[in-house]
Design a protein that fits this description.
It contains seven helices and 21 strands. It has helices spanning 14-25, 60-80, 96-108, 143-155, 222-226, 273-280, 333-348, and strands at 6-10, 29-33, 49-52, 85-86, 90-95, 113-116, 130-135, 139-142, 160-163, 168-172, 175-178, 183-185, 188-191, 206-216, 230-234, 240-243, 251-255, 259-261, 292-303, 313-316, 319-321. Strands 5, 6, 7, 14, 15, 16, 17, 18 and 19 form a nine-stranded mixed β-sheet that branches. The protein has a six-stranded mixed β-sheet with strand order 9-2-1-13-21-20. Bound molecules: flavin-adenine dinucleotide.
């Protein structure tokens, strides 16, 4: 009989939930704690959509890793019994002088890519003198649907306990203290608290806040947008991105130009209006005045100079953490989940 471990996971965003799935599949007992509801609308994973693309220019190792992540996402659709991947493609704008080299590198990595003239996508705002490189297998994960599917699967699993409204106060090897005084024993702990991870683990993390704007297209463009790809490196400065509407989601725009370092995740006092104006003025979407602004939201992520793009960091003898990372944290969550489950297997052996 395989040895069974008691795993406790602090945080029920995409990292915590997918790690719970992997650990349960490997035969372990799992408890997932979140300080809010599960899924938690206040988590950074809870959103209409997240982009998933494989190509990383000049970085074949990252490209390979993201190809593996996408494969795992497709398997997860089967495991969790839900459809949440929209393979709409993602087009990135590249200076005309660089596009051939980009296409060649992506093709060498085995990715189906093609050049697209900006005129073919007239509602996306390309920088001057650029051309689109379309990664056909890339697309959009319907993030809220992912979280709901994982929660449904975990709720039905006999070895899994989901505990909403359970705030973790501190984490020690073999033990987790909850707000209110309860103590839980654990063979292995994963801190998956996203941008709140520094509350529970001492990491040299830098906190970032980014504003996103949700738009409803005008009636005459609804059909066009339903078949549109996502876009990257867009806008007049080539720093913006958009995720297309479809399957009940809105069009979402944002830009690296509205990403800022902050001290705290509390954004209640910050007006989003200046960031909204900046995004609407960034030429990400053509004729943006014809679109209805439905919502503006800010979201946080951490960067960790020590961990870099590592999927997991060991912070104690049986304690691991995953700091949420910006552009690829959702994409690579299945890889972090699998790595954690494999670590248990190795340690048992
Ligand atoms: C603007 C923006 C755009 C992004 N776009 C993309 C994208 O297109 N593609 C992509 O791959 N990635 C993207 N990301 C990154 C991705 O969204 C995150 O990396 C990912 O969602 C993080 O998931 P997580 O589960 O690690 O953290 P979270 O989803 O934040 O979950 C953490 C959970 O921990 C809980 N928690 C916190 N503290 C405690 C505590 N003390 N006790 C108990 N529970 C606690 C919280 O309530 C929360 O539910 C983006 C990020 C941002 C900010």
């Amino acid at each position: 009989m395989k040895p069974v471990r008691q795993v406790v996971i602090a945080g029920a965003g995409v990292t915590g939930l997918l790690t719970a799935v992997e650990c349960a599949l490997a035969g372990h007992r799992v408890t997932v704690l979140d300080r809010g509801a599960i899924p938690n609308p206040a988590s950074s994973s809870f959103d209409h959509h997240r982009a998933i693309r494989a190509f990383a220019w000049g970085d074949p190792a990252t490209t390979r890793r993201k190809v593996a992540a996408r494969r795992r996402w497709l398997e997860l659709e089967t495991t969790l019994g839900a459809r949440f991947y929209r393979r709409v493609g993602i087009v990135s704008a590249w200076p005309c002088a660089e596009a051939d080299a980009v296409l060649a590198e992506a093709a060498a990595a085995g990715l189906p890519v093609s050049a697209v003239e900006p005129e073919k996508l007239p509602h996306l705002g390309f920088p001057a003198d650029s051309v689109g490189v379309l990664e056909a297998d890339a697309g959009v994960l319907l993030a809220e649907r992912v979280l709901s599917a994982a929660v449904k699967w975990l709720s039905a699993h006999p070895a899994v306990t989901l505990r909403p409204w359970s705030k973790v106060d501190s984490v020690h090897s073999g033990r987790i203290e909850l707000d209110g005084g309860e103590s839980l024993g654990a063979d292995h702990v994963l801190i998956a608290a996203g941008p709140w991870t520094p509350d529970l683990a001492d990491l040299p993390a830098v906190l970032h806040r980014q504003t996103m704007v949700y738009l409803r297209p005008p009636d005459d463009l609804v059909r066009w947008w339903e078949n549109a790809p996502g876009g990257g490196r867009l806008g007049a400065d080539g720093r913006a991105w958009l995720l297309p509407p479809g399957d009940g989601t809105l069009l979402k725009i944002s830009s690296d130009a509205v990403c800022r370092e902050v001290e705290s995740t509390d954004s209640a006092e910050e007006s989003q209006d200046p960031w909204l104006e900046k995004l609407l003025g960034a030429s990400i979407v053509s004729d943006v005045d014809r679109y209805t602004v439905v919502a503006t939201k800010s979201c946080h992520y951490l960067s960790d100079p020590d961990a870099g793009d590592a999927l997991l960091t060991r912070v104690g003898p049986a304690v691991w953490s995953r700091s949420a990372c910006g552009g690829t944290g959702f994409t690579t969550a299945p890889l972090a989940a699998r790595q954690f489950a494999e670590t248990l297997t190795e340690e048992i052996a």
